[in-house]
Amino acid sequence: MASSKRSPKQIFESLTAAITKKPPFVHGAVSLPPTSTALYFGATDAGRLDLLSPQKKQLEQLLAACSPATFGMNKEDVLDEEYRKAGKLDAENFAFNFDVMNSEITTQITNVLLQGRSDPTFVPELYKLNVYGKDGFFKPHKDTPRSEVMFGSLVLVLPTPHEGGQLMLRHEGDEWTFDSAEILSEQPSPSIAFIAFFSDVEHEVLPVKSGHRITISYNLYSKMDDPFTKVVHVPSPIQLAVEESLRGVLDSKVLRRGGFIGFGLSHEYPLRAGGRLPSTLKGTDEMVRQACEKLKLRVMITLLYEAGPDDGSFTHVMFLTYPDILAEGELQAEGGQIHEPLLEMRGANPLLVKYTEEDGFDFKKSPTPEEPLEAWCVTPKMKNNVSSLYQAYGNESTTNYLYGRLHLLALVGPVGLRETAKDDKEDP
């Protein structure tokens, strides 16, 4: 087999290279349906904006009906027009007869952001209407996740004349521009421009030079799909490349007695101490999970705390939940050996982690039976780091921090028995 002629280092380099970055958004335009040609607004006196022929007076009435838009900071709504200048209407104060779920937008979000998965779908929750008049803007920010299952945002830009107001998106050092004014001007008929993106993507609204940029935003929540409306999943080229590289690992002699292949997650996820780790993944993270599942590897989202004994027999303590360490009270961590009280906590397991991108990585093929299972982790990320406060008790009580990182781990069986996922027909 070709993989047997390659060194372990070459095999994992191939796997790392296969996990290429993909834009964390989808955008486009859809024609304005005949039933969606007007926007109604106002908490008391109803106003109407004709989207087929918006009039200046109607636009001014809409802007007058809005209150100044705030933004979230430290779990509070903050009003600061040096940071954001726009008007807003809450969902109960406007009406727009547009069905997101029965539009082409749903297909785009499912295929691009959710990777066409057949088991989950999403639910859009109407959030706000915003009006950016001349000189309106919003400085760089990230959307605040409103629950553990919120994965992104959808923004509709209505067909009102405007110039400027481009939406800039930034993620992992890359930058993109969504120019709704240009997109709408290119459409042969009145249309809605749209963009959906993950909640950890930084974005910024550049100043509007003229006109009115009117947006309707939705929060996107993951939801288990109806079994009668399954989406047919077509693997992406990236997923196929990851699958092929994973096969190279499984066909080789690395992790001879089994262990884990680990992947640092590339997107950010909301975490709550004492709560569950994310079950819905985004973008490339989801593609990696699908590739592992295709090869019948059991996958799990884990939180790895870097805490091991001085003898190096293991390096991390693994949890399948986010432990509320401070709630445990004072931990008996004599001599700084925090791994001992950690392992006494529910769900804790020792793990010998090796990051394949680190200099001097030791591709050991045959760990001794006394050692814990190894995890060979690729593409480590600085994201998804958590710091857990705990009271350490030794000669005196001190407050320390313990640092962990989210990973997707694929359980690999020993050579000859690599598959670890249960058959759906088997008893649980």
Automatic annotation (TrEMBL):
<dbReference type="GO" id="GO:0016705">
    <property type="term" value="F:oxidoreductase activity, acting on paired donors, with incorporation or reduction of molecular oxygen"/>
</dbReference>
<feature type="domain" description="Fe2OG dioxygenase">
    <location>
        <begin position="121"/>
        <end position="222"/>
    </location>
</feature>
<dbReference type="GO" id="GO:0005506">
    <property type="term" value="F:iron ion binding"/>
</dbReference>
<dbReference type="GO" id="GO:0031418">
    <property type="term" value="F:L-ascorbic acid binding"/>
</dbReference>
<keyword id="KW-0223">Dioxygenase</keyword>
<dbReference type="InterPro" id="IPR006620">
    <property type="entry name" value="Pro_4_hyd_alph"/>
</dbReference>
<dbReference type="Pfam" id="PF13640">
    <property type="entry name" value="2OG-FeII_Oxy_3"/>
</dbReference>
<keyword id="KW-0408">Iron</keyword>
<dbReference type="InterPro" id="IPR005123">
    <property type="entry name" value="Oxoglu/Fe-dep_dioxygenase_dom"/>
</dbReference>
<keyword id="KW-0560">Oxidoreductase</keyword>
<dbReference type="InterPro" id="IPR044862">
    <property type="entry name" value="Pro_4_hyd_alph_FE2OG_OXY"/>
</dbReference>
<dbReference type="GO" id="GO:0051213">
    <property type="term" value="F:dioxygenase activity"/>
</dbReference>
<keyword id="KW-0479">Metal-binding</keyword>
<protein>
    <recommendedName>
        <fullName>Fe2OG dioxygenase domain-containing protein</fullName>
    </recommendedName>
</protein>
